[in-house]
Amino acid sequence: MTDTPTARLLLAIVRRDLRLLVASKATLIPLLVLPALVFVVLPVVAGLAPGVLNLPLDDLDHAVVVLPDLLPAGANLPVDPEGQVITILLVSLLAPMILAVPVMLATVAAASAIAGERERRTLELLLLSPITDRQLLLAKTLGAWVPALVITVVGSAAYQLVSNVLLSGYGVQPFPNLLWMLLTLWVSPAIAAMALLSVVVISGRSRTVQDAMQLGGVLVLPLIGLLVAQSTGILLLTPLHLAVGGGVLWVVAGALLHTGARALRRDVLAMQV
Amino acid sequence: MLLLEGLTRDFGTVRAVDHLDLGVRRGEVLGLLGHNGAGKTTTIRLVAGLLTPTAGRVRMDGLNPVTDGVAVRRRLGVLPANAAVDDRLTGRQNLRFTAELFDLPHVEADPRLDGLLAHLQLAERADEPAGTYSTGMRQRLSLARVLLHDPEVLLLDEPTASLDPVAARLVRDMIAELAAGRGGGDARTVVLSTHDLDEAQRLCDRVAILEHGRIRALGTPAELAGAWGNDVVIEVQPDDLAAALALEPVAGVVAQAENGRHLRVPGVARAEVPRIVHDLSAAGVRIYGVDVRGPSLEDVYLRLHTDTTTTTEVDR
Predict the structure, then answer these.
(1) I need a surface site. Which of A160, B128, B171, B271 has the fewest CB within 10 A?
(2) Structural domain boundaries of chain B?
(3) Using one digit for the tens of pLDDT, what is the confidence trace for A105-119?
C-alpha cells in the first residue's frame, strides 16, 4: 500500500468539512446572510437611499470634486450630481467592505476546523489516520478557504451586477474595473488565507469553537480601520495599493502556513484530545 | 511484531509510562489491565504515534511510529477510549470518509463497508445520521471504522465499555475471529485495554497488568493464576471454625472465615492441600467438604493491587 496522494487526502477532508458546514445551520446562516447583506442589500440601499430619502447633496459637492480622481481608470462619472455620489460610493468608498466578507467567512468556517473537531471529539480519529501534520493543516485551511473564496467571488460579481443596474439609470456602468478585479481575485483570496490560517492556528489552541471565533474576530478590526480611512479620505485605495498590499498578505499567509505546521503538531494536538 | 523497548512517557512531573518492555507476536491478543491512570491509554497512544516517548521506543515490524507515522498508522487500527463518530454524517458516510483517508478504492471499500455494517448489525440504519444512534451503535460504528482498512495490528481501548451484553459479545467474538484469522485474512495482532477482567481472561493470550506505568505482572491468564496459587475453601462444623482459625501456624497459611461455616485458605499450592486437611482433621476439626479453586484473573488483579511489593513476570 502506498501513501495516499496528498490531493486525494485533501479532497476527502475538504469535501467532508464542506458537508459538515452545510449541515450546520449555526455555521451556514452567517456564511450566507453576511454576504447577502454586503453584496446585495448594501449596494441597493446605497444606490437608492439618496433618491428615496431625498438627501441633500450640497455638502458632498467638495467630495464630488475631489473623488473622481480616485475612481479607477476608465470609470466615468455621470453628469447627475446624485449619480456621481452614488457611483463614488459604490465604486470606491464601499470597496473595503468586500474584504470584510472573506475575513468573516474564513473566521466562521476556520474556527470549527480544529476546535470543532475537538468539540465533536473527532480530532483523534483524524490524528490516527495516515495523514501528515502538514496535510492536516492544508486540508483544514482549504476546507475553510474554498467556501469563503467562492462566496466572495460570487458575491462580488453580484455586487457589481446590482451596482451596474442601479447606475445604468445615470448612464454609467463602472464595473468591472481593475480596482475591483484586484480586490476580488488578488486581495480577497490572500486576506482570506491569512485570516483563516491565523484562526486555524488559534483554533488549534482553543478548547471551543466559540473561543476560536472570538479570537479570530480581532482580525476584522484592521479592516474596520481601513473602511473608516477610506470613507473619510485619510487613505484611499488605488490599484497599486491593492497590488502591493495583496502581495504582502500572501507573504504573511505563507509565513502563517509555516508557523501553523509547527503549532499544529500531532503530539501537541493529541495532548488536548 | 510489535516491540516496546524501555518505553517511557512523562507529562510534566508525572511519569505515565515507565520503562515498558513488551513484545507482542503476530496473531497474539495482549490484554492491558490496570486501574484508571495506570498507563494503558498512554501506551496505546505512544504505539499509535500520537505521543512522542520521553525515552525508549516502539517498533512495529521495524517501523518507528514517530518517524514513520504514516506507514505505521496505515498498518494500525486504533479504537480510542470514548471513540466518537461524526454525528452529522450518516453511518455510511462516516465509513466512506475513513475509506478515503486510507485511500481505499470504492471497488474495495464498498463491499467491506457493507460487510462490516451487516456484521456489526448497523446495516438497517446505515443511511441515518450517526447522531441518532444509541451509544452502543456508535461504538460499533467506531469499531467498523477501525476495521475498514483491514489493519494488521489492532489497538482497542475498552472496546466493549459502553455496549450491552449482546453487543459486547458480538464485539468479543469479532476480536477473537480477527486474532485467529478466521473469516479470511491473516491473523491480526491485538492489544486490548480493558477493565473487564472476564473479557481479558476469555480473549487474551497474554495479559500485562500495569500500575503507575509499570508492568506488575505479565503472562497468560493461566500462568498468572498459577503463580498465585489456589483458593482452598473448606466446609467445617461451625462450632469448630474458631479452632480451625487458631491452627494457622500449623497449616502454615493465613485462613479466613467465610459464611460462618467455611474456611478460605488463599494462595495455596495444590500439593499443600492434603497437608492442610490432615492438620485440621488431626486437630479435631470436622470437615464436610474441600473445594480447590484456581484463582481467576480478577483474583490475581485484585491481589496485585492490594500487594504493592510483588512483581510477577511469568513470561517477559
Answers:
(1) B271
(2) 2-224, 229-294
(3) 887 777 777 777 888
Answer yes or no: is pLDDT of A46 > 90: no
Could you give the count of Cα atoms lying within 13 Å of A88 in the half-sphere of its Cβ?
Answer: 24
B85 touches chain A (CB under 8 A): yes
The C-alpha of A132 sits at a distance from chain B's nearest C-alpha, in angstroms, of 7
Fold exhibited by the domain B229-294: Alpha-Beta Plaits (3.30.70)
Q: Does domain B2-224 have CATH number 3.40.50.300?
A: yes
Is any Cβ of chain B less than 8 angstroms from the Cβ of A25?
Answer: no
Tell me how far apart the alpha carbons of residues B59 and B67 are, in angstroms, rounded to a whole number: 11
Residue A135's pLDDT is 87
Work out the burial of residue A217: count CB atoms within 10 Å of its CB; fewer than 13 is exposed, 13-18 middle, 19 or more buried.
middle
Angstrom CA distances, A7 to A12, A13, A138, stand at 9, 10, 10
Tell me which chain A residues have a C-beta less than 8 angstroms from the C-beta of B143. Answer: none
Average pLDDT score, chain B? 87
Q: Measuring CA to CA, which residue among B201, B208, B202, B194 is closest to residue B158? A: B194
Taking an 8 Å cut-off on Cβ atoms, the answer to whether A4 and B71 are in contact is no
Contact (CB<8Å) A267/B145: no
pLDDT value at position A52? 63
Output the pTM of the full model: 0.77
Q: Do A8 and B103 touch (CB under 8 A)?
A: yes
Chain A residues near residue B88 by CB distance under 8 angstroms:
19-20, 23-24
Q: Which of residues 237-296 of B touch A (CB under 8 A)?
A: none
Q: Could you count the other beta carbons within 10 Å of the beta carbon of residue B222? A: 12
Sign of CA dihedral A166, A172, A174, A175: positive
Task: Using pLDDT thresholds of 50, 70 and 90, give the confidence band for residue A256.
Answer: confident
What residues of A are in contact with residue B86 (Cβ under 8 Å)?
16, 20, 120, 122
pLDDT in the model for residue B316 = 42
Report the complex ipTM.
0.77
Mean pLDDT of B138-156: 93
Burial code (b: 16+ CB inside 10 Å, e: under 16) for B231-250 equals bbbbbbeeebbeebbebeee
pLDDT at site B315: 39
Confirm or reject contact between B71 and chain A (CB < 8 A).
yes
Specify whether the CB–CB gap between B65 and B79 falls below 8 A.
Answer: no
What is the three-class DSSP state of B56? strand
Q: Does A21 touch chain B (CB under 8 A)?
A: no
Question: What is the tens place of the pLDDT at every residue in A153-164?
Answer: 999 999 999 999
